[in-house]
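Recall that a protein's primary structure is simply its ordered list of amino acids. Everything else, from secondary elements to tertiary packing, is in principle encoded there. The following example makes that idea concrete.
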Amino acid sequence: MRALLLCFAFATASAAEPTWKLTLDENFDGVELNAKVWTVETGKRRDSLNSPKAVDLKDGVLKITTWTDADGTTYCGFVTTRKKFFVTQGKAEARCRFLVQPGTQIAFWAQSPTYGKSGKAAGAADDGVEIDILETTGLKKGGYQSALHWGPYGNKEEKKASSVQHPANVGAEWRTYAVEWDNTGYRFFFDGQLAWKDEKCPGSKAPQFLLLTSESNIKGWNGERPKDGYGLKDASRNTFEIDWVKAWERVEAPKPAAK
């Protein structure tokens, strides 16, 4: 009888396990970004200018170079799937490498177009969450952090955050960074191994778009930009390279038929 109960419990648990549907398989093999999925956003952000001048696609790699022209303008790359592609309670993964200078931050992250809409941190499951899968600055010396932000940005009482530091110098190597999430929380992976999990932040049920970005301040949490900037594009050592990006949606397994 006990064996039968154990078999039934195992079968029930197995039936409840979700499967995964691949919804994005981006290898950057073309000569330009797929406009049906990606947008290179433009305009001023922080103390720099988002521009296609910072974004290149070559030999199957998306390369974002943060650089400074002779007039002192610093260019950053902001590549997103905003309004075009979303992940809802699934997982996202990218193979990346980076070399980041002080005053710059780079990130592989996910955001929701309805972030903070309710005005309450408790509403984050429906509003969406800022999911920083890989985020680093020149101050981290090849290390990185993963972070979650929820609740409206401008409300100190409702704005919440959770993060973990990964200090090992891994930036110059090709590595994979991933997250998966559901109602129970978030699980972050490094090279396929669980690196951090968080159950404090509400599991986002909102569609989340993906971002591959660089940002730069004259002075801020990411350090201080060199007085003369980062040099012209060909000379800049301020780079973020992405080999591929993949995303999956969770497909709940069907419930077993009643007997």
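The longest helix spans residues 2-16. The chain has one domain: 16-251.
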